[in-house]
Amino acid sequence: MNLLTREPGETRPLGPLDEYSFQDCELADFFVFGSSRVQSHLAQMILLSKDAVECVLDTFEGERVIGVQFVATASKVKRWIFSIHLPHSDNDEDTFAVALAELSTVCHRHQSGQVVILGDFNVERESHRAFLLDDVLGRFGYKTFRGGVATRFGRNGSSELDFACVSRKLNAMIRRIPQAARLIVHSQSRLDIGSDHERITLELALGDKIPRRARRRPNKGRCGRWSVGLNLNEHVSQLQTVFSEMSLVGKWEALKETQVACCYRTPTYKFKDSPQLKQMCKDRTQCQDPDTKLLLTRGILAKRRAEKIEWLRDLEERSSRGEAGAIRYLRGRSKVYNNMDGMARECGGVDEAARAIQEHFDLLFNPTVSDEHKQTVAEVMSALQLSSGEFAVKLFTKEEIDKGVARLKPGKSTGMSGVSSELLTAMWTIPQGQCILTDFLNDMLQSSEVPAEVHRAFVVLLPKVRDVLRPLDIRPICLVEVTNKLFSFLLLQRLVDSWPVPNCQFGAVSGGQVLDALAAAHWQTGAEAMRQRRSVWINADIQSAFDSLNHSTIAQYLQEHCPPHLSRETLQLLRIVCSPVMKFSWKGTDWETLQGQGVQQGHTHSPIIFAYIIGHYVQTEFERWRVGGSSSSTGDWGWLFIDDLLLHFDDWHTASTLTPLMQKALASLGLRLNLRKTELLGHEEALQEGRRLCLPEDHLLRQISWKTSTQYLRKPLRFLEVGESTFQLLFPSLKRAVYVGMESMKSVFKSLFWREAELAFKLVNRYVGSKWFWFGPLLIPIQTHVQEVQTLQVSVMTSVLKLFIPETVKRDAAMSLHRLRRRALLVFLGRNRQVSWAHIWRMRIWGYFGHVLRRHDTHPTKRILLGQDNLQRPQGGVANTPLRWIRSSVAKAFSVEPTVEQLLICAADREQWRIQGSQYIVAMGDSESHSHLAQSTWSHWQYSVLQLVPWLFPCSMVSVDGRTSLIWIDECEGFQQWDLEDVSFEDLWTFVTRVRMQSDAWVFMIHVSTEMYEAHAVMWGRLAEECVTNFHQIVLLDILDDVTMERVTSKFLQRKDLTPRQVNASLLGAFLLAPAFILIQKAYYDTLIDYLNLSLLSPTKFTWDYTEVVARPKEVLDEAGGALKWPELRKLLLERCSAMGLRAQHLPLRVLASIPEPFLNDKDAWVRRPRARDRSASKLAPCDSQALLSKELRRAQARLLVVYFTSRMCGPCQQLKPEVHQLASELPEITFLEVDVEENAAIADKYRVDAVPTFLFFRNQAGSGPGRL
């Protein structure tokens, strides 16, 4: 059946889907639609409950998508529901691209309606296909809902492939209540329905559209970001005369007054219209004339786009200089704001939630401290006070303070007083300001009583998760006074040199970085997998580490490791640690608490003190184990990155014996392990061995999870299998980081197109690529891995630059365009290595290996790296290790024997290491760079000259009778020609320069013969290089085979016989549209007019003097901004064409779009108003064969027969088609036939049809072409 209910009570055939009716079964209560013609396994069906659906309006059937439009009974709203089944992962990329294009079409057509799309998307999370799918859905504003669990269960595992998405308009109707929208996966339902997929249900609680809530005003408190005014010099000069006579409290108040008098809130970086643009908007609002208003509107849109690009370019330049505000603005454009309202719901109200948060943090920061600990701190302070009196005060010098001020980060939020780092930095640039700051800081050093406000901090409560439901989901960050930060840095600068550096600590120590800890872990597990050792690793999580460290432990460490002559500095640092006051605020409830333990998060000293103390005690514990007779193959039993502890044991006996001792050592510091997050890592065989051990139930190893894979420093860590590499383990993390970066920057990238390629690459590298560049040295850049990274970058840039392929393009052409855009990006990356991810990756790994090789011999990372020497694979042969890669690279870069000793010698000279490595990597990139030359892959000769997409300008070089020409097909004017006096770089450069004026293309593709390329190979290379350097545009050369080149040349010769002499209307259109205002530079104007003259097939020149135009503001130019007046311009065009013997031609549609509506009329030879579009009685019949055309010619005899040649790829053809239908219906005495030139190339060739749209008129089987009409 194919009967759909159009309205209640009415039925008629409508839509391509089949409708099925059922009686006496459970399906009788549903409207059932489906099709077995789609490209899924069997069929696709949609069932709609008759109780919820008032009537069905329409259906849709595609290759992999079916849909039904219905009217909901309750809301009377029209909605679409679509079922989708995308290709499986074993299908090739071309098949997936075609299916994705169909989905893109559906999303685009219905993006303004209420739409639900659900089904089997066959896309794994964080895969390349997932990125492409998210790009399509995000582009049209669709929101995705997933269940978060596997929905498909196959022989090789399970995965989440079934989910749903809704349109922006429907998403706006979802009520703002908990669980208003969720996707439910019904576990084990696949067994009931006999499928390998679980059943999913999308539940939506819909209501009226929620109006957007007004934005909250910025925090009215003193905490914020500031800029310094111009009155600082005068104010500081006056303050300096009396500052030295003030008390410490008075000096503090003077600094606060300086902040108020000389600083103002940092203005936003948000885009704002320029004064000129605002004036244009004002003129448009006040304008009454519709023609002028139309011209002003176009000018406003063009100018605003240009200003936005310049604004974005300026932001990028500022961020590249390290301007914190610009960096923060770009990163925060798509910030996801967490919801803390769930806390109030869980606790029963806002007041109860505030009380729960207060109790939690009071218990965390100010627990009951034993008298013993308090006495220890008091005794240490007393001893330091006595010791400090024995030594003279060593005041802070200008050099010391200069280092501290240089470390202040601009753009950071201030403390409660409002004194900002910008103020201190600006004061330090003034001699009087230096005296003030030096005086104040030295007074703080000598005083035992500092202003209480200096130790106060405002606590910002940041959510750890998306929906906060309990206090544990909140992370407290302190906004500390900047003067306190500067003071503590000066104290640490003197003290830290006397502290022993723990060998096991990688964080917050000189030269330490997170990459050291990651590299040591991955290199060691990789080596053990090669050696088939079954060691045991403990990934220990310390609960609330910074907030739990005993103050007595800190006091004892400082007293023990600080020299006596620095007792004053030690005492002042201890006072800062032990006496902070923390102010909280949540939902209108304010409270304060003292910090009785731990170190203040957000302070300068916090990570340094914590890292040194915990590192010292963990290293001490390792020494006890070594003295006790234990040993480790790695030297020590693990390492730390600040508070992240990773322990390594060679066997189960050692692990079971030593882990309780480490737990006890941490407990002595006030620290405890989070048993819920602490994990044991081992190979499956090692875990099986451990399960056979008889461990007590209360043993630490029994209380934690045992896994074959863990997350260490937010990166996966496990033992590699045979044939597996670290790249395969971390590449999903790399892609995830890239996709997260793309999502966070999507509001910035949406303004970019291929025209801004250079800016796009810079932004992508800085805010997307940088998310994985830092851990790139963990990945060995062998050739296959480099290709995968390049493929990922090309996919990202294809999306950012909007190198789209229209849905109207045929599949073979679409696939060629797909390969072409990737080729163009690879060529661009080869010419601009500084933005290539492969080049950046190799440079970073080279630099990092040099850093590791220069470390001391006992450093764990260096010891593990050098321990890979002569490592063998289990199946035989030398293992592909990081050491092997760096030895091979050093041998090529330095031309030396790559022994370990030679590696250390080469790396010792830092500058020489950088120079030699850079030269080697550049040479490697040159050998891998993609060539601008390739063999043409076009399936039809027309594609070599036809403009299929706006980012590509294809043309062909033909030689006829010793004269060389470049030809292409314009979308409106058909064949175009540029004659070359000589095949030289200068002539081709002139051609590219002129074409750039009329085309927005990013890729210029020139098709040449083999002989033409070989004769001028150097010239072509220079042309490609100059275009990339000067314009950031790509020139590609495609070699056409002899048959195709001969056909293109023959078509060109036929075109010369048929085309009349006429003005190139498309260039006139570019002249009318490109500069919305004619007041442009004279050089540009003259070049455009010269180019216009070159397109005339007449010796007479088309003269239009620049001064003549600008001298007639009342005749040719509109007074409201200098826009061209169409009537006056039309007169000038007619005068010149008449004088040259040229008749008026219809202007192309894009030129008509620039003409005000009142000037469009049917009597004008230059313009034509579209007629009413009514195709109900159209008699335009398709013609798909020469036999049919011959039959119609014989049947028509004396009657007129019109053959309309068109193409689905031709935009003007599609816009003209409704009018042809209208003519066919109005003139029944005339026979109209439609010929698609792509489907029927033989017919087009026979009648010498070179461009579309084209009309041929026949009477008595005799035809008249456009050249003879």
From TrEMBL:
Keywords: Disulfide bond. The keyword 4Fe-4S does not apply. Residues 443-693 form the Reverse transcriptase domain. The keyword Disulfide bond applies. It holds the Pfam family RVT_1. Residues 1149-1269 form the Thioredoxin domain. Signal peptide: none annotated. InterPro entries: Endo/exonu/phosph_ase_sf, RT_dom, Thioredoxin-like_sf, Thioredoxin_domain. This is Txnl1 protein. It comes from Symbiodinium natans.
